[in-house]
TrEMBL record:
<dbReference type="GO" id="GO:0005886">
    <property type="term" value="C:plasma membrane"/>
</dbReference>
<dbReference type="InterPro" id="IPR027417">
    <property type="entry name" value="P-loop_NTPase"/>
</dbReference>
<dbReference type="InterPro" id="IPR051120">
    <property type="entry name" value="ABC_AA/LPS_Transport"/>
</dbReference>
<dbReference type="GO" id="GO:0005524">
    <property type="term" value="F:ATP binding"/>
</dbReference>
<dbReference type="InterPro" id="IPR003593">
    <property type="entry name" value="AAA+_ATPase"/>
</dbReference>
<keyword id="KW-0067">ATP-binding</keyword>
<keyword id="KW-0813">Transport</keyword>
<keyword id="KW-1003">Cell membrane</keyword>
<dbReference type="InterPro" id="IPR003439">
    <property type="entry name" value="ABC_transporter-like_ATP-bd"/>
</dbReference>
<keyword id="KW-0472">Membrane</keyword>
<dbReference type="Pfam" id="PF00005">
    <property type="entry name" value="ABC_tran"/>
</dbReference>
<dbReference type="GO" id="GO:0016887">
    <property type="term" value="F:ATP hydrolysis activity"/>
</dbReference>
<feature type="domain" description="ABC transporter">
    <location>
        <begin position="3"/>
        <end position="250"/>
    </location>
</feature>
<protein>
    <submittedName>
        <fullName>ABC transporter related protein</fullName>
    </submittedName>
</protein>
<keyword id="KW-0547">Nucleotide-binding</keyword>
C-alpha cells in the first residue's frame, strides 16, 4: 500500500522537467517536495495524477501501474489533489465548493437525483453533516456563505484542501496550500494536515515554507532543475552542508527564518 514513483523522467521539448525521480508515499506519512521555481515539483504532481504522461519510469498506487489509467479515473484509486493556482467559479460559495468534493463518491446518480429518491435525500443529509464538520475543522464555518471571488487566494487554497478531503482520499497531494495564508491560518492548516495523515492518509506536499516543511515532514525530497538534489528527514537535511548552502544560506542558526541562496523562497 503506497504511491510508488520509480525513476520517472518527463521532458517538455528541450526541458528536462524531471530526471530519474523516485518518491514513495506510505499511508499515514507526510512527504514534502521542495526546490526552487521550475525544479519540477508541479510536474511530479501532474505525473502522479495523470495530467502529464511520463516518458520513462512508473507510477503505481498500491502496486498497480497507472500508466493506462486516465487522470479522471485516478480519483477512484484514492487520489486527491489541490492546485498551486486553483481554478474556480468566483460565484460559488465556500459551502458549495466543499460539497462538490463529495460528489465523486456519490452513488445516487443523475436519475436518482432527478427522481428525488429517498437514498438521495439520505446521502445529501450525510454530505451536509460531513461538510459542516470539515468547515468547522478548517475554521471556515463563518465563511460558508462567502463566495470564493470575495476571498483572498490563500483562503481559496484552504477551501481547496477542505474540498479535496471530502472525498476521503487515501493519498492527498497538496501543491503549496499555505501560500498566502496568515501565520495563524498556516498553523491551522498544519494541524489539519497532521490530523489527516494520522487518520492513515498518505500526504505529498509541495511547500516553500521550510519551517512548515520541518514541522510536518517524515521525509523531504529536494529537487533542483528536475534532478534529485537530496532527500531525507528535514533534520538530516539540516546537517547536510550542501543542502544548507544551496537552500538556506550559510547562516544555520534560526534556519526557519533563513533566506535561501539560490532563488527559492523556502
Ligand atoms: N506544460 C509544459 N510545457 C512546457 N514546459 C513545461 C510545462 N510544464 C512545466 N514545464 C517546464 O518544466 C520545468 C518544471 O516546471 P514545474 O512547474 O514542474 O516546476 P515547479 O518546481 O513546480 O515550479 P514552481 O515552483 O514555479 O511552480 C520548468 O522549466 C517549466 O517551465
Amino acid at each position: 500500500m503506497s504511491i510508488e514513483v520509480e525513476n520517472i523522467s518527463v521532458q517538455f521539448g528541450g526541458v528536462h522537467a524531471l530526471k530519474d525521480i523516485s518518491v514513495r508515499v506510505d499511508p499515514g506519512r507526510i512527504v514534502t517536495v521542495i526546490g526552487p521555481n521550475g525544479s519540477g515539483k508541479s510536474t511530479l504532481f501532474n505525473s502522479i495524477t495523470g495530467l502529464v504522461a511520463v516518458d520513462q519510469g512508473t507510477v503505481c498506487i498500491d502496486g498497480q501501474n497507472l500508466a493506462r489509467v486516465p487522470a479522471w479515473q485516478r480519483i477512484g484509486r484514492g487520489l486527491a489533489r489541490t492546485f498551486q493556482t486553483p481554478r474556480f467559479d468566483p460565484r460559488v460559495c465556500v459551502e458549495d465548493a466543499v460539497l462538490c468534493g463529495f460528489y465523486p463518491v456519490s452513488r445516487a446518480g443523475i436519475l436518482g437525483a432527478m427522481l428525488r429518491l429517498p437514498v438521495v435525500a439520505r446521502q445529501e443529509r450525510a454530505f451536509s453533516a460531513a461538510c459542516d464538520r470539515i468547515l468547522d475543522d478548517f475554521g471556515l464555518d463563518g465563511l460558508r456563505h462567502a463566495s470564493l471571488g470575495e476571498l483572498p487566494m490563500g483562503m481559496v487554497r484552504l477551501v481547496e484542501v477542505a474540498r479535496a478531503i471530502a472525498n476521503k482520499p487515501r493519498y492527498l497531494l497538496l501543491d503549496e496550500p499555505a501560500a498566502g495564508l496568515t501565520r495563524a491560518e498556516q498553523q491551522l492548516l498544519s494541524s489539519e494536515i497532521r490530523r489527516i495523515a494520522a487518520s492513515g492518509v498518505g500526504v505529498l506536499l509541495v511547500e516553500h515554507n521550510f519551517a512548515m516543511v520541518r514541522s510536518l515532514s517524515d521525509h523531504t525530497v529536494v529537487l533542483d532543475r528536475g534532478a534529485l538534489l537530496a532527500q531525507g528527514h528535514p533534520e538530516e537535511l539540516m546537517r547536510d552542508p550542501a543542502f544548507v548552502a544551496a537552500y538556506l544560506g550559510s547562516s544555520t542558526p534560526g534556519l526557519s527564518g533563513a533566506q535561501p541562496s539560490i532563488g527559492t523562497t523556502l
